[in-house]
Design brief:
about 40% helix, disordered N terminus, elongated, Spore Coat Polysaccharide Biosynthesis Protein SpsA, Chain A
């Protein structure tokens, strides 16, 4: 009933429009030139109504009104046709619309409608029009390069996913860095009804490298110009977004605006909300040519098929070549060239209401484009200052941005009901594996964790690594959670080589880590540390998954498998590089053992030599690691022999042995079935032995464990009997798997376990 009432209101409003708009327009056209029997100017800029300029101006205004009148009549003709169809369909037509969504904004693409949109806001029911089919795919293109832009893209995508009701297809023009980061992120995110395609930005550099650009976005800031060539030829339309965009509404509403394009309109843009293109910001300010204030290209609607037919490539290149002869370079990257083309061809643009791109730039006038913050649809942080920009509503904008920045991305893995998803092999395999588990099994949660896919953001901070010329470089590998963050600076001071860290954090904690790192001079001075965020999910700490992530993304031929609680001796990095050569690690299967010690003191004068360490051992300041609680874990290292050793010596594997080792990067991964506390390193060392690795103790190397509060997982192990039962079950299953995989040689592990 409600749908029928709304339909009648729409029909009545449309009928009144058909009847009265032509009459009002003709009355205005006829009477607009007279006041008290005398002609008056239609332009507020004319102060001399009887001057020669007046006649020409008045004539132009009259012609403009006549053109507009013809457009209105054409719109009314189409509207009458739609109304007649609606009447012929009858009431059933209303019920047929439930499969569609509706655009809530009203706009015609001219400045008058823009002002109307500001006054009316974005909630006029009468402005609703059939817009986007329920399961229609919305295409979005984003240019992304580097580590920082990859983080920004995630926040943008979160804001889009939060509001969306349609399948999405993201077209990412990315450099090698962004592709590696975002491909892994989306693969592990596993959001239904989202497809990702990548296009190599480095291959496009030659297309735009001839254009000098002063903008901080560099060469990548020009790549939106070549999207007609880059994107698939069968793609007809696309929404193009900057990475510093935040959505406050369903992107389908913006997609629906394509239906309003008319004639030769092929670009949907919002007017620039600063005086940049007016050229009055400072003395001798000389911007590129633009139509009025120009247009901002942070949000673009592109009709690709029509642009290709118009020979867009030739159009923008000729314009850029001509303007560069006098301008010499662009100041605002692609935006300058888009505006120069529009200046020459204004018919190309459909002007979007300003709430589709509220620009928080320097010198912004964005406050004039909305009546209330609830009117906003898209926020654009297009100032280098980003969140520190000045605006009377900046707190609202900042809070909206921070909401998505820290929003749990796992909650966005929701299905679009009624829309069939494309077959995903990884997702199907995961569901099959989970379905084979017995949910009544008391260890079900342990077993399930092995198959959990954790969203992973590689290289969360800037990373640089220069390979060593002698091919002996070693990366320190470790994992941590938020409660071990304080160890990072100390490790960086002790180890000058490359480091690969996997951090188990929530979305909010990831931002806390980012602020912590950016505020640390020690961490910011190190560019050879790879920080890989594995987002929290489930009730266990996935320690071996974290280790595998850190191991997989090293850039060196060798790695030192450590833990975050240990500080390596000063100079260990260089010592290990020499040992790699001395022991021919490149051509032999060796695991070099770094002896582990511990202190119970939070303040420790770190030993600078082996002799000093031995003295501290004798004084009781240091102990061999876990000597008091888990002797078996490191006893095979043979600390008594190490005290006097001057050359490397070989030791044999024993049950529960879990030393810290240096190995080649091609060593086996850690077994994911072990989560939380217990047997996670033991199982890995056992597999190294099964693969016939030779364990060699380094005589002049050491590492010291620093004290800390017990972890949550070790507390569960100690207090929860079922936890210990499940761990024992997993150990037995691992040993059985070893026997099946390695045959007769693996029987010793069962024997050793029974004898221990």
């Amino acid at each position: 009933m409600l749908g029928i009432c709304r339909g009648r209101r729409k029909f009545l409003a449309a009928s009144l429009t058909v009847l009265f708009v032509p009459a009002i327009m003709w009355i205005y056209l006829f009477a607009g030139s007279f006041e008290d029997g005398k002609p008056v100017s239609l332009s507020p800029l004319e102060s001399q109504p009887h001057s020669p300029r007046y006649t020409a101006s008045s004539q132009r205004e009259r012609e403009s009104l006549e053109v507009r009148m013809r457009e209105v009549e054409e719109e009314n003709r189409v509207l009458r046709k739609q109304l007649s169809l609606a009447q012929s369909r009858g009431p059933a037509h209303h019920h047929g619309n439930h499969s569609k969504t509706y655009s809530m904004e009203e706009g015609t693409g001219d400045s008058e409608s823009l002002r109307a949109g500001i006054v009316a806001g974005n909630s006029s029911e009468c402005g609703q029009q059939p817009a986007v089919e329920k399961c229609e795919t919305i295409h979005v293109a984003i240019v992304c390069a580097g580590y920082n832009a990859s983080r920004d893209v995630v926040t943008l995508v979160k804001s889009v996913l939060f509001h969306r009701r349609n399948p999405l297809h993201f077209h990412l023009i990315a450099d090698a860095i962004a592709k590696q980061i975002l491909a892994t992120l989306f693969q592990t995110w596993m959001v239904p009804a989202v497809r990702i395609d990548f296009y190599d930005a480095d291959e496009l550099k030659s297309e735009v490298s001839w254009i000098p650009n002063k903008h901080y976005s560099g060469i990548y800031g020009l790549m939106k110009l070549v999207l007609t060539k880059t994107l698939p030829s069968n793609l007809e339309r696309v929404i193009v977004l900057d990475t510093d965009i935040t959505f406050a509404t369903d992107i389908a509403e913006l997609w629906a605006v394509f239906h309003k394009f008319k004639g030769q309109q092929v670009l949907g843009l919002v007017e620039n909300q600063s005086d940049w293109y007016l050229g009055n910001l400072w003395k001798n300010h000389r911007p590129w040519p633009a139509l009025g204030r120009g247009y901002n290209t942070g949000v673009i609607l592109l009709l690709l098929d029509k642009l290709r037919k118009m020979k867009w490539e030739q159009m923008w290149r000729l314009t850029a070549e001509r303007e560069l002869m006098s301008m010499l370079s662009t100041s605002l990257a692609d935006q300058d060239i888009f505006n120069a083309v529009i200046k020459q061809n204004p018919f190309l643009v459909y002007q979007l209401p300003c709430f589709w791109n509220v620009q928080l730039s320097d010198h912004t006038r964005s406050e004039q484009c909305y009546r209330d913050v609830s009117d906003l649809k898209v926020i654009h942080w297009n100032s280098p200052k980003k969140l520190r920009v000045k605006n009377k509503h900046v707190e609202f904008f900042r809070n909206l941005y921070l909401t998505f920045l820290e929003y749990d991305g796992n909650l966005l893995r929701r299905e679009l009901f009624g829309c069939p998803s494309e077959a995903d092999v990884n997702s199907e395999n995961l569901q099959k594996q989970l379905s084979e588990l017995d949910e009544d099994d008391l260890c079900y949660e342990f077993r399930r964790e092995r198959f959990t896919v954790h969203r992973t953001h590689l290289y969360f901070l800037h990373y640089e690594y220069e390979p060593a010329s002698d091919n002996t470089d070693v990366t320190l590998v470790a994992q941590l959670s938020m409660d071990r963050l304080q160890m990072l600076e100390a490790i960086c001071k002790h180890w000058e080589g490359p480091i690969s860290l996997a951090l188990y954090l929530s979305d909010a904690e990831a931002q806390q880590f980012l602020r912590y790192a950016q505020g640390s001079e020690v961490l910011m001075s190190r560019h050879n540390v790879g920080y890989h965020i594995v987002y929290k999910e489930g009730q266990f700490y996935p320690v071996n998954l974290l280790r595998n992530v850190a191991m997989k993304h090293i850039s060196t031929p060798y790695m030192f498998l450590s833990d975050i609680d240990f500080l390596p001796m000063y100079g260990l990095y260089e010592y290990l590089r020499k040992s790699v050569i001395q022991l021919d690690l490149a051509n032999t299967k060796k695991a070099l053992i770094v002896p582990a010690f511990e202190t119970l003191r939070y303040r420790l004068s770190f030993p600078k030599s082996k002799a000093e360490l031995l003295s501290m051992l004798d004084m009781g300041t240091l102990f061999t690691f876990r000597y008091h609680v888990w002797t078996k874990g490191h006893a095979p290292t043979n600390f008594a022999k190490w005290r006097t050793a001057t050359t490397p010596y070989r030791v044999e594997w024993e049950a529960d042995f879990e030393p810290y080792v240096v190995v080649r990067k091609d060593c086996p991964e850690y077994d994911r079935r072990f989560v939380g506390f217990g047997w996670n390193k033991v199982a890995h060392i056992m597999e190294l032995d099964a693969q016939e690795y030779e364990f060699t103790v380094l005589p002049n190397a050491y590492m010291i464990h620093m004290p800390h509060a017990p972890s949550f997982d070790i507390t569960k192990f100690r207090s929860n009997k079922q936890y210990r039962i499940c761990l024992k079950t997993l150990k037995e299953e691992f040993q059985q798997d070893m026997s099946r995989h390695y045959g007769f040689a693996a029987l010793k592990y069962l024997t050793a376990e029974n004898n221990s």
